[in-house]
Task: structure prediction
Amino acid sequence: LPDDVRHVVSSRDVSVAFLQSDEFEQGEPPRYVSYKAWKKAALEVYRLRGPLYGQRSASRRWYETIAKWLIGQGFVQSANEPCLFKHGNGSIVALYVDDLLLRGTRANSDAFHTALSERFDCRGGPSYLAPDAPLEFLGFTITMEEHEGETYVYMDQHDALSTFLAELDTARIKAQDCPMPSLTKLFSDPTPLDDVSARVYRHSAGFLNFLAKTVLLNVFLNGHFF
Result:
């Protein structure tokens, strides 16, 4: 296809995104943070102009900031997936916290990344997918092949899954008939987990939740959006 209609895939990472969220507005409840320069120094208290990492509301504030900016750029938010945005020129953005994956023509993609850099500080320039330049995105390796005028895009989580399974030591896990056991099984042992087991559980549950959510990328790359 000609370059003016052929879509390319690119990625971008916004730097310290939470600190680039919109500042708190007049009328919002004030937020404060305390600080000591050293152990015996006087306690200093500051009123925050915007969110900091560690605040419960910081991630939500960032999402509202980037979503509002994308809508202001002409994108429309998906009714089925709030982290997918589609533009009238055919460009589509998949958002995962501060990582963005863009699909569109090269001209529209270049214009998008320029506008993004003007509003937010980003880590380096955009990375474009090519047969000799795979993209590493959220534990995915995204590759592209071209055969007889056709373009094929593949996603692979082999490395991330292999690392996770090695950490989990699957040899110690018994097979289950169903991912969710019965309530009888669930409450059969009320003994609280120790710190190490609790840490393993949180890590495992978090990674599995991540895998479930990254189905979004398959939707994105295969063109089923709204």
In short: The chain has a mean pLDDT of 84. The helical segments are 58-72, 106-119, 158-168, 183-186, 195-213, 215-222. The radius of gyration is 22 Å. The CA atoms of residues 38 and 78 lie 48 Å apart.
